[in-house]
UniProtKB/TrEMBL annotation:
This is Scavenger mRNA decapping enzyme. InterPro entries: DcpS/DCS2 (IPR008594), HIT-like_sf (IPR036265), Scavenger_mRNA_decap_enz_N (IPR011145). It comes from Phialemonium atrogriseum. The active site is at H259 (nucleophile). One of its GO terms (cellular component) is nucleus. GO terms for molecular function: hydrolase activity; RNA 7-methylguanosine cap binding. One of its GO terms (biological process) is deadenylation-dependent decapping of nuclear-transcribed mRNA. Belongs to the HIT family.
Length: 332
């Protein structure tokens, strides 16, 4: 090793921390201010990618420390854990381990569809016209709903699972304006990093599968629900203000039961918030409000563009066959 490299490596252990400047990338990068030999210094810590080594990946599940279950529902489980081999101080006395450095999701038993979803794959951009939705996508949605893929959602709605996590619920049917909905942490949030806050708002009614089922008559209900979700979030997490939240829905969603994502504006936009996947709730409400037609006019009458993985069933069973036959461009 060269003398210059040796000298450079000797600098980091001499860093004396003074204060945290920033955390971004959902807490995966921290900018620290301090000194080295009494001179000001800035140290940026960023988590490196996981190694692709089969030896490492094969041993990591058995080497986890301080594994703590955050919740379980049907085949889905999520945890916090310490993945490092070095002894670390205990928690700070509030019952949490501040050194938990891994957020773990487990799907067990998983299906072939889960494997496809999480595998590396090419991506396509498709345009779903009203005709394609009516003739192809709607039947596809119905088949998936009837296959029992919503059991975990119904467990929450019917009070069998995750009730300790529900931070807001309005009684179903008590007020026609409410129609029943609830709010709880998304399974991908560590429940501590507020800049990465991610909540899930789930409706209890089962007649709205996706944004395609929304109509002009639903505008007051959507506005009411939005206000209740924001109010509940800022009450439970008082450090978060209303204008630090954004609400959106996915299309296509992962599962066909209407739900809304509530996230902190600091949460960096990954694939789930990208154009072609996430649509702002306020934009949907405004689009419905100005839509021509009577109260039954709705989102099933507009064309929507979005991205699909090449391994997804919607691509292999609907859009790829339409592309091969040339009917996708004709269904407009």
């Amino acid at each position: 090793m060269s003398a210059s490299a040796t000298n450079a490596e000797a600098l980091v252990p001499k860093f004396r921390f003074e204060r945290l400047l920033n955390q971004d990338q959902a807490g995966r990068r921290s900018s620290l201010y301090g000194t080295i030999d009494s001179q000001p210094a800035l140290l940026v810590l960023e988590r490196a990618p996981f190694p692709a080594s089969a030896d490492y990946l094969g041993s990591v599940s058995g080497s986890l420390r301080a594994l703590k279950n955050l919740g379980a529902n049907d085949i889905y489980h999520w945890y916090l854990a310490n993945g490092g081999p070095i002894d670390r101080p205990e928690g700070d006395g509030d019952g949490d381990d501040p050194f938990a450095d891994l957020k773990i999701n487990l799907i067990y038993p998983c299906t072939e569809q889960h494997v496809k979803k999480y595998s590396r794959q090419g991506v396509r951009f498709v345009t779903e016209t009203p005709a394609i939705y009516r003739d192809h996508v709607r039947p596809f949605m119905q088949a998936r709903r009837e296959a029992g893929r919503l059991n975990w959602v119904f467990n929450i709605i019917e009070g069998r699972k995750e009730q300790e996590d529900v931070i807001y619920r309005t009684p179903f049917g008590e007020d026609p304006a409410d129609e029943g909905f609830l709010l709880l942490p998304d399974l991908n949030w560590d429940r501590k990093t507020l800049d990465a806050l991610h909540l899930l708002g789930i409706v209890e009614r089962r007649d709205i599968w996706s944004l395609r089922d929304l109509r002009k008559r639903h505008v007051p209900w959507l506005r009411h629900m939005r206000a209740k979700f924001v109010e509940a979030t800022t009450k439970v997490y008082p450090a978060v203000e209303e204008d630090q939240l954004k609400l959106y829905v996915h299309y296509q969603p992962t599962y066909y039961h209407f739900h809304i994502h509530i996230v902190h504006v600091q949460l960096e936009a990954g694939a789930t918030q990208a154009t072609g996947k996430a649509i702002g709730l306020d934009s949907i409400i405004e689009r419905l409000r100005v839509m021509q037609g009577d109260e039954d006019a709705g989102m099933d009458g507009v064309s929507l563009g979005y991205t699909l993985g090449e391994a997804s069933e919607l691509w292999t069973e609907v859009f790829e066959p339409l592309k091969r036959t040339g009917t996708a461009s004709q269904s407009r």
